[in-house]
Amino acid sequence: MFLNILLVLGTFVFMEGFAWFAHKYIMHGLMWNWHESHHVHHKGWWETNDLFGIIFGVAATALIVVGSEIESLRWLMYVGFGITLYGISYFIFHDVIVHRRVKIKFKTKNRYLNRIIRAHYVHHKVHERDGAEAFGFLYAPKKYEKP
């Protein structure tokens, strides 16, 4: 049980590093044609960038299904749970809190939350493929903290 929880939490932490890498080198690289929709103003709720979330969701679901069906691969289920937990956290932070894609009132005095929100706004100052910074989603260095 402890190892399963550790695998879920370890996968969650790994996903922040993977998301940073994917955001910087894939979304702002080869797949900019999808991600660009997230950096420009648009009408409606759908962004082509949302396809990344669908891909990660399908991958997590596949890992959970395979891990729950094949005893020797049970560990994959917990990896899928970790990816899912990260995806839920990402949705709440990125889509609900930062971009207000779900209309709720949210104000915080929490320094850490304000730091990652500020880092994300710095990231969005650049509307081009190149020249952006702050590619993390749930972590941002202290340089983004207000003095």
UniProtKB/TrEMBL annotation:
A biological process from GO: carotene metabolic process
Name used for this protein in its record: Beta-carotene hydroxylase
Top-level taxon: Bacteria
Protein family: Belongs to the sterol desaturase family.
Transmembrane segments: 6-27, 48-67, 73-93
Fatty acid hydroxylase domain: residues covered: 10-136
Record lineage: Bacteria, Pseudomonadati, Bacteroidota, Cytophagia, Cytophagales
Keywords: Carotenoid biosynthesis, Membrane, Oxidoreductase, Transmembrane, Transmembrane helix
InterPro entries: BETA-OHASE-like, Fatty_acid_hydroxylase
GO MF term set: beta-carotene 3-hydroxylase activity; iron ion binding
